[in-house]
Design goal:
319 residues; alpha+beta; Alpha-Beta Plaits; Molybdopterin biosynthesis moea protein, domain 2; 5-stranded antiparallel beta sheet; ribonucleoprotein; Ribosomal_protein_uL10
Length: 319
């Protein structure tokens, strides 16, 4: 097997990255802190088909991106440069970005708490029997963890928050967790940014559903409409409201003056004779409204003497 020189390795890397930039328009920028080579190999196997994982030094990647951008005239690639910070890699894909992101998240591996490591999460030691003999109680005393001896072994009485998120792991905490066999942290590739056809956005955008998008769009349209109406600036969203408001104003003028038009005539007619509003009621509503009145009339008839009623009417009901 021929061993490549450093210059040849750089050339091969540049060629591969340029080829990927030409072939793919979607890229996930991922953080690779505490990710081992075996774990990375498993991720590559899991994504094989429509995705390619490429790692490398940031300086090499930035240099290649700049040169490729100059050669092709595609300045959109330059949006990748600010994202190449820290221990990061690139996942080129032709698949669905959300699905690829979810697939990457599956390959997380448990890891012990090493001394000096910044805790990514809170670490809580659960209560229960530890299986350790009483000679090991010094570890618990140093960390102020309440314990008791039960059947010749150390038992933790209550759950204890051993390490807080963002704190560095101390030697005592690391030793205790190792003795208890607790691997509190899990590491894998973490998607930090998404590049899609020149646009760069946060991975949280991938979690948005169609309902979320419709809601945000409706909210935006509502704001545009309100602003347009406030400054009397016609827009597609505000136009229907402007026409309705204008119609209301013209109608108000017609009602208050002798000026009229067909629609205003109907309104004036209703205003002159309010009983005509009853015509617009539905048969069901009319029946519901007339039922109490009919019941009240029937009650009045029962209370009123029959003779009085006949005398008032002036004729027999059977005439």
């Amino acid at each position: 097997m021929v061993k490549l020189t450093k210059a040849e390795k750089k050339t091969a890397y540049d060629s591969k990255l340029c080829q990927l930039l030409d072939e793919y328009s979607q890229i996930l920028i991922v953080a690779a802190d505490n990710v081992g080579s075996n774990q990375l190999q498993n991720i590559r196997k899991g994504l094989r088909g429509d995705s390619v994982v490429l790692m490398g030094k940031n300086t090499m990647m930035k240099r290649t991106v700049r040169i490729h951008s100059d050669k092709t005239g595609n300045n959109a690639f330059l949006n990748l440069l600010p994202l190449l910070q820290g221990n990061v890699g690139l996942i080129f894909t032709k698949g669905d970005l959300k699905e690829v992101s979810e697939e990457v998240a599956k390959y997380k591996v448990g890891a012990p708490a090493r001394v000096g490591l910044v805790a990514p999460i809170d670490v809580v030691v659960p209560p229960g029997n530890t299986g350790l003999d009483p000679s090991q109680t010094s570890f618990f005393q140093v960390l102020n963890i309440p314990t008791k001896i039960n059947k010749g072994t150390v038992e933790i009485i209550t759950p204890v928050e051993l390490i807080k998120k963002g704190d560095k792991v101390g030697s005592s905490e690391a030793a205790l967790l190792a003795k208890l066999g607790i691997r509190p942290f899990s590491y894998g590739l973490v998607v930090q940014s998404v590049y899609d056809n020149g646009s760069v956005f946060s991975p949280e955008v991938l979690d948005l559903t169609e309902d979320d998008l419709v809601e945000k769009f409706a909210s935006g349209v509502s704001m545009v409409t309100s602003l347009a109406l406030a400054i009397s600036y016609p827009t597609l969203a505000a136009a229907p409201h402007m026409f309705i408001n204008a119609y209301k104003n013209v109608l108000a003028v017609a009602v208050a003056t002798e000026y009229s038009f067909p629609e205003a005539d109907k309104v004036k007619e209703f205003l002159k004779d309010p009983s005509k509003f009853a015509v617009t009621a539905t048969p069901a509503a009319a029946a519901a409204g007339s039922a109490p009145a009919a019941a009240a009339k029937e009650e009045e008839k029962k209370d009123e003497p029959a003779e009085e009623s006949d005398d008032d009417m002036g004729f027999s009901l059977f005439d």
